[in-house]
Amino acid sequence: MKLRLSVLSAALLGAGIFNGALAQTTTDVGTVKISGSGDSLGNGLLIDEDSVKTKSTVTKAAIEKERATANPFQLLNLMPGVNASSYDATGLFGGNLRVRGFNSDQMGFTINGAPVNDSGSFAIYPQEYTDSENLCELFITQGSTDTDAPHVGASGGNVGLVTCGPNDKAGGKFTESVGQLHFNKTFARLDTGLLGENVPTKAFFSASHSTVDKFKGFGQAKRDHMDAGLDVKLSADTNFSATVLYNKA
User: What angle do CA 147, 149, 155 make, to 5 degrees?
Assistant: First the structure.
């Protein structure tokens, strides 16, 4: 019995020495950080921002999960410090936005860098600006405006809408959405793809028609919207882009 214990102890001691030798040969590589645009990681709302100011971003991965007629206020509703309200679930009747106590008319709104606040009252009409199918990014800065942004009455932050530019390959997209209260939205988009060799040019055009009845009482929302974009690469360092938005409601 004493001999067996000695053999077992020696075996355990040898194993410990062997494991210790292995432990000494491992190398600490430090912290490995995985980053992504939001389309491949998370749900499009968990973006690791590197800005010095408070900023939150909604990517296309999250926008595609929302209803087809969702307006920007509804898309920003889950961001920190943001409280949004809508007159109905579809977003076609508009709504309101408050960010850290600031109302929507105290926020600066831009679409591809162009300001869209009302020039007199600085009011915002979120259901008019763009189709969610054409949105690639939506960001908000809580509590501080961009010093280089073209805003006059912004005191509570900045909201930016970035539309998807024309695709390099020719193609199209068609979606049809239906629901209760005679809800219907038809959306179609056409991309020309790259045209020309000396001056590569690409463009897109989209149109949509949306209708829904009021959830209480008589009435209806009817919206016709068109988006168009042009991208011309004049040289390796020079690029010209243009966006046209039309809305009738």
Answer: 65
What share of residues in the chain are helix, strand, coil (percent, to 5)? 15, 40, 45
Together in a domain, 158 and 192? no
Nearest to 113 by CA among 148, 142, 145: 148
Structure confidence at residue 1 (pLDDT): 45
Phi, psi of 218 (to 5 degrees): -90, 150
pTM attached to this predicted model: 0.76
Please, is 146 exposed, middle or buried when counting C-beta atoms within 10 Å of its C-beta (0-12, 13-18, 19+)? middle
Range of the domain at 122: 55-163
The reply to whether 140 and 205 lie within a common domain is no
Q: Which helix (H) or strand (E) holds 228?
A: strand 220-233
What percent of the chain is predicted at pLDDT more than 90? 34
